[in-house]
Amino acid sequence: MTTQTSDLLAAAAPRTVAVVRGIADDQFDLPTPCRDYLVRDLLNHLFEVVVNFQDLANKRQVEWADKPDHLTDGWQDRFKTETDKLIGAWSDPSTLEGVSPGMGLPQTVIGGMALLDLTVHGWDLAVATGQAYQPAPEAVAELHGLVEQLGPTARKMGVFADPPPTPAATPAAAQTPPPDLARLLTQTGRTPTWPPTP
């Protein structure tokens, strides 16, 4: 049994898992497109997402204040395992019913938020560590509507930055993402041609 959410997570996950597997321990202190987050911080955050959203699928409250260090022995394999569990957690149609007791949002939106983090942070980590990244097209298409819905509140809360101005020129060293992904990144306040010209 699957749901649209679990199918989208299953399409997006292998691409982000591949990026995570391509990160070396000596890259942990590199900057990322997420302001104030180094690669180490963003990996721990994404680990937290794939673990906590398993509980959110089952309408259990989670404690975001806990900040364990997930980057211990075997962390790349454990990330893959937890991501597989995330997909499984959202495969039951009952997970999409009702409102999240902890977050007060429809469960369909909560599932979309997991997909958003997995997709966008996959790009963040890829460009931070010099890797290629092509997200699942069906995930990107689905996320445009979600980001438009969440955008005003997310910007007030500081989760999204304001969309950056369109650059006059693309830095030669930057990867230029496909237009659909570039629009999604801009919606979340990212500069698609990161890193910007010094």
Structure description:
- There is one protein chain.
- The protein is mainly α.
- About 50% of the residues lie in helices and about 0% in strands.
- It is globular and about 40 Å long.
- Residues about 165-175 have low confidence and may be disordered.
Q: Estimate the global geometry from the Cα principal axes.
A: globular
**Count, helices:** 6
Order of helices and strands: HHHHHH
Percent range for helical residues?
40-55%
Our estimate of the beta-strand percent is under 5%
The CATH topology is given as: Four Helix Bundle (Hemerythrin (Met), subunit A)
List the helices and strands and how they pair.
Blueprint: H1 4-21, H2 39-57, H3 75-89, H4 107-128, H5 137-156, H6 179-187
Helix pairs in contact: 1-3, 1-4, 2-3, 2-4, 4-5, 5-6
Short description:
Helix 4 packs across helix 5. The chain contains six helices and no strands.
Structure keywords:
Four Helix Bundle (Hemerythrin (Met), subunit A), mainly alpha, 198 residues
